[in-house]
Each structure stands twice: as structure tokens, then as C-alpha cells.
Amino acid sequence: MSAHAADSPWVQVQDTQDIDQHALAQQGWALHYEQLSPGQFRGRIHQVHLQEVTLLREDTSIALRQRGRLHDSVYGFAMALQDPPDLFFNGQRVPAHAIMCGKGDEVDLTTPPHFTLIAVVVERSLLNPLWERMYQKPLAHWLEKQLVLPTTEIKAQNLRDLQLTVLDQASALAHRQHNPQALRQLRDEILMEWLEALPPKVDTSELPSLERRKKLVDRACELMLGHADEPLSILEVCSRVGTSRRKLNYCFQDVLGTSPVKYLRSLRLNGVRRALRQASPGVTVQDIASHWGFWHMGQFSQDYKQMFNELPSTSLARAQR
Asked: What predicted TM-score, i.e. pTM, was given to this entire model?
């Protein structure tokens, strides 16, 4: 996508076949993806940017963890297009008909295979006065956090239907760029629908407990990745982060929906894949595999092929052509 004039409408629809390409396709946002389930990645990004608002539909074919940030000045509101199992937002399991929302300075989303996300990202400069007009009070303080909020099945379905309709209509209008009033009306209509789907009262009493569990998981992940070439045992990880094995497993299941061992293995395989695809001439598969703590090459090749649908030698050969 080419550069755009300041806040002028633009549309992007891009099909992707690589998670790093997919992350970079969301321009202006700093996101990083890790593949968590076997299979060939297929994705699609459909974004429409209107004045101070970006509408998004994201389709992905495999389980992923998506981390990073949008921008300090924006707030995001998101929902699954269909209610899937094993969806986690900022360490919180996302139930059916729920909205994920919060400030754009942090994104942490774990998604299942065959997943579609719809979202709206809005600048504070637009959201703050709109909120004050709607509710006669300042922007809610809980929007500074990342929260999962319930809504009704009817509101959720209305929101999904309207988001898809507005994406298509706004895409057509933005391409023509000659009807700014119609674009503003579409923008305001979808933004109001998102805000009106939020619950009238928000309980944040569980947030400190959720944040503690997530911090424990993040510390464990950072520690494990810091020793990728000589993977630590779970007992060593528990000792260094100051928790029991049972609690660590519980926290990983609660925050990411998987075990520490399985998650670390996925991260290491992702690390190998990126290194293979960026390798210089003369670098071997064994060089990279051993750097990431894989010493049994037969088992490693089998695990790699199962995860990415190709042998590590194929990934390396493609990089060194």
C-alpha cells in the first residue's frame, strides 16, 4: 500500500501467506505473530481508514499469538466474527458474544485456527468528545486497560452484520473519494454501534488477579526465550520465576490456553523458521537448529515439517536462492 495523505480515506485488501508479511501488512501498527498450530498460513487483511477511525477484518487459517501495539493515542474494540473456543485477549479467555477493548498501547491476542476478527480502532480525539456527548461524563477510566466485556447475542450479531456491511460500503466510497459526508455517516454509524454494545457497568475487580497471572507467564516466556539454545527445564523456569510447576501450568492454560512446554516448543520452531528464511549463504540447517536448542536432527526435521508443511532444508534453500 502506498503512502497516504494525512488522514485521507484509504482501503487495503491484502492476501498473505506468511505471518511476518501479514503483521507488516497492517501499516502503522507494530505487531509480531507466532504460529501455534500446524499448517500452512493463509491470511487476509481488509482495512478501511476513515477520518480518525480504522475498520478491520482479519482472517487467519492457523492458531496464532499476536503481540505488539497500535498507538498510544487510539482505542480498539474487537470481536470474533463467529464465537470460537480458545480465544484469549490479554490473558483473559473470551466467551461468546464478548467485546475485547482497550487502549492501543498493548495488544496480546491468542487466536484459534480458522479465525476471523472484526475491529474498529478510533483516535482519542474523536472518542473522547463522542463519549462525553453520549454519556455526559468523561471517557471511562477502564478503557485505559485491556478488557473482555460481555454483550448480548442480539447486539453482537447486529454489530457483526453492520461491521461487514460498512466495510464493503466504505471501501466502495473511499475508492471514489468524492463523498466525504457519506463516509462520515458510515463511520459514525459503526462507531455508535460498537459503543452501544458495551455493558452499562464494567467490573474491574478481577483485573489485578488476571494481570498477576499474565505477568508470571510473560516472565516465564522471556526467561525461556533467553535460553533458547539450551532450553531450561520447567523445574528451572519455576525456580527462577518463583512459582510451582502446578501454578505455572495453570497460569499458561489460563492465559494462553496451552502448556509451557508446548508453547516454548512452538516459539523455538518459529525462531528456526525465521532464521532459515533470513540465512546467509553457507549457513546450514544444523547451525540454526542447534542455536535454537534442537540437537536431534531427525526429530527436529519431523517436528518442523509437521508444523510448517515443509522440511527445514526447503525453507533454507528458498532463502538462499
From this structure: 0.91
Q: Does domain 10-203 have CATH number 2.60.120.10?
A: yes
- Label residue 100 exposed, middle or buried (CB < 10 Å: 0-12, 13-18, 19+): buried
Closest CA to 99 of 121, 77, 82: 77
Q: Are 111 and 60 in contact (CB under 8 A)?
A: yes
> For residue 187, with 0-12 CB atoms within 10 Å meaning exposed, 13-18 middle and 19 or more buried, which class applies?
buried
Dihedrals phi, psi of 51, to nearest 5 degrees: -60, 115
Residue-range domain boundaries for the chain? 10-203, 208-319
Report pLDDT digits (tens) over 140-199: 999 999 999 999 999 999 999 999 999 999 888 877 766 788 889 999 999 999 999 999
CA distance 171 to 174: 5
pLDDT digits (tens, 9 = 90+) for 263-318: 989 999 999 999 999 998 889 999 999 989 898 999 999 999 999 999 999 999 88
Write down the CATH superfamily of domain 208-319: Homeodomain-like (1.10.10.60)
